[in-house]
Specification:
By secondary structure, the chain is mainly beta. The protein is about 10% helix and about 40% strand. Strands 9, 10, 11, 12, 13, 14, 24, 25, 26, 27, 28, 29, 30 and 32 form a 14-stranded antiparallel beta sheet that branches. Strands 15, 16, 17, 18, 19, 20 and 31 form a seven-stranded antiparallel beta sheet that branches. A four-stranded antiparallel beta sheet has the order 1-2-3-4, with helices on one face. The structure holds 2-acetamido-2-deoxy-beta-D-glucopyranose (3 copies) and copper (II) ion.
Amino acid sequence: MASTTIKLSFFFAITLIFLQAVTPLNLQHPLDPLTKEEFSIVQTVVLHKYPTSKNSVAFHYIGLDDPDKDDVLKYETQPTLITIPRKSFVVAIINSQNHEIVIDLRLKTIVSDNIHKGYGFPILSADEQGVAIKLPLKYPPFIASVNKRGLNLSEIVCSTFSMGWFGEEKNSRTVRVDCFMKENTVNIYVRPISGITIVVDLQLMKIVEYNDRGIEAVPTAEKTDYRFSHQNPPFGPKLNSLVSHQPQGSGAHINGYSVSWANWRFHIGFDARAGIVISLASIYDLEKHKSRRVLYKGYISELFVPYQDPTEEFYFKTFFDSGEFGFGLSTVSLIPNRDCPSHAQFIDTYIHSADGSPILLKNAICVFEQYGNIMWRHTETGIPNEFPEESRTEVNLIVRTVVTVGNYDNVLDWEFKTSGSIKPAIALSGILEIKGANIKHKDEIKEDQYGTLVSANSIGIYHDHFYMYYLDFDVDGVNNSFEKTSLKTVRITDGSSKRKSYWTTETQTAKTESDAKITIGLSPAELVVVNPNKKTAVGNDVGYRLIPAIPAHPLLTEDDYPQIRGAFTNYNVWVTPYNRTEKWAGGLYVDHSRGDDTLAVWTQKNRDIENKDIVLWHVVGIHHVPAQEDFPIMPLLSTSFELRPTNFFERNPVLNTLSPRDVNWPGCSN
Ligand SMILES: *[C@@H]1O[C@H](CO)[C@@H](O)[C@H](O)[C@H]1NC(C)=O
Ligand SMILES: *[C@@H]1O[C@H](CO)[C@@H](O)[C@H](O)[C@H]1NC(C)=O
Ligand SMILES: *[C@@H]1O[C@H](CO)[C@@H](O)[C@H](O)[C@H]1NC(C)=O
Ligand SMILES: [Cu+2]
């Protein structure tokens, strides 16, 4: 016994040494998010050049500098034959100048350090917002306004709001600060203190503008608290329990940030700005005996939320939640058994603070299988004396994060189906943006309130949510084309049929970017990304089709300032040639941007997109006319789209997929 133990522990020790020597470099995928150690390297390297004893330094963005796509694709086939430089891209405001710094994380050196001189500012840091929201509470004019309203200063909390750009020449990093009552409720957003304008200059970190236009009622706290502990009976309806148990364990295997599940393989990245990033999604083809790539990369590039109240109180509320606040920085920890089912697996990641320190984000992502739908079925009633019936259970894999930017919670899913579809889905919850008004009943409304009276003194302001998805397709290879197949009515005039009309299809391949600017809903069409170099046995181009979300089109005029900045919503679909730096549809610097670095501007070059590495951009929009059910907290409002194989496989790829084994409960045997 003793000698065995010694041998075993000796073997174990050797293995450990071996693992320690090899693990850090070899197990890290080139697209893995920055580690805690790498954030610290960035911090050390930058602060070595710009010590805080002599400089003011604030890190507004620290992320992975995208490795060369060719290199990543080589790594996918031969991971051991290629060493990819591991670099970080940093945006820091150093002594009031906007630096773009690239750092080699292995050599721990600065590769480049440039100053951005154009318009726009980087993502706001949580740290500076945390300081700004405390300024009003010590500002005598604000305290006077509070007293005038008879409010309790100790029960007030404030929040920062990006200000956009409305044609002004002045270029300063300002935010508006609005304040709310937290008295008797944590639902602060439904208790705004209306009528006050506060502007804070973040560089000076002081209030530079203050205006009190008069008193509007602060809506009551009564029945607005959403915490269970603060609600009163009756509770209902009563819901029954479900046990979710996977006797064979999860089908999803997570190795670091790489996931394999059923016939899919993909990588989950995470970025302070983009939040979750899905890369290198490939599906195993049972007939061709190989994995075939579908998507090189997918993430939400921007979220534009313009409110529709043009008054002093609200006009500037035209938010770009990714570029101004950071989807990664705003990602919240998922609540086990509530946000994700009990059988979910969780992934942690790191973000960073303004001083460059890594911050652990626990349970940032969950991965779980979802059961219960039909994958395919048929009951054959047409054969006498036989009764064939066949049905298969669908099992899908969901990858989920929740991004909470102020009042709104965005539940963001990537759903993978064994049939080859990828379904990105969005569900919104959280709190409406409310304006206080001296109105208790609809009959008292004399002029446009720019929203719905959802409760006494509470106007839920009209607004939109436009999510811009970046989808770098690699359908069975890098070079793809974008095809629009229109459904056209044909009239029969020659008497050749008893019919007077029918419809057929007409396919056009987009040659340049302007051919691929699509407004969905005007006329029926199939939008397909094909690989013109790969055909099925019967000769169709292999492809993936976009089944778009219910289309939403912007209603602002094209010359309106928010729409110039959000011009990427002018079409529902765009296609561009892949360009490593064209990542952010609203521009790299969005706070106070002037719309000179948007997708709408890049595509004016009208570049060739045929048989090239292309990126498809899809706008998923929701026009939101608030209703009383959205108050005091909103039940999920969802939308989704589908990327669906279209002549990609030779036949139904799940013909031979068996339903999961039936399990009897209790006892879990079958
Ligand atoms: C104001 O709020 C504070 C903190 O909740 C409380 O302790 C205090 O009693 C309140 N003052 C008044 C006048 O209600
Ligand atoms: C893609 O097309 C370009 C020309 O546009 C060509 O240079 C390149 O070799 C092609 N790449 C692949 C992987 O076929
Ligand atoms: C990539 O995009 C940037 C920004 O739009 C542009 O300046 C650059 O010319 C583009 N590169 C290529 C090769 O098109
Ligand atoms: Cu909304």
